[in-house]
Fold this sequence. Notes:
Keywords: Cell membrane, Membrane, Transmembrane, Transmembrane helix. By secondary structure, the protein is mainly α. It has six helices and no strands.
Amino acid sequence: MISSVSQIQEVIAIPQEYFWLPWAVQYFFFIGIACCATLYACWQCWKGRTGNPRLEAVAVFIAVTAGITAPLALTADLHQTARVWHFYAYPTPWSWMAWGSLLLPLFSAFSILYFIAMVVRLVWKREYKLTRWVALACALTSIGLLLYTGREASILKARPVLYTYWLPILLFF
């Protein structure tokens, strides 16, 4: 078998002109779950006394689990993972991928901090005011990730249903 660095041999997907590899689809699935769970958890956190701490904890657990899995699937889709440092070495603010390279690690970090705050609250019965702000930062980065993911999916002509400028807005509904 002859292969080159620039040619991808996919054994699972049927070769097409434009197509989504399974790894990219997994990223969309997991990041959607993580972002929606984060938004729900933040809503529960900011409701105050009327919020349900158990539902918030479950949502944060789902968010952190899917939020850690999603970047792994995205890394598998890059095919040349060593080039990811180019996003940080040569910033391009007009590129959606550059925004995603900033938002995804921030989202992962904030969701892990939020999870640690939930563990502290449930195990040691201590609550800090900073938790609400971590929840808000997590929600803001999840909104940014939904916009980034929607825009990335709408730019590519892989599937006609996804090739629309309305896709980032449709992800919220």
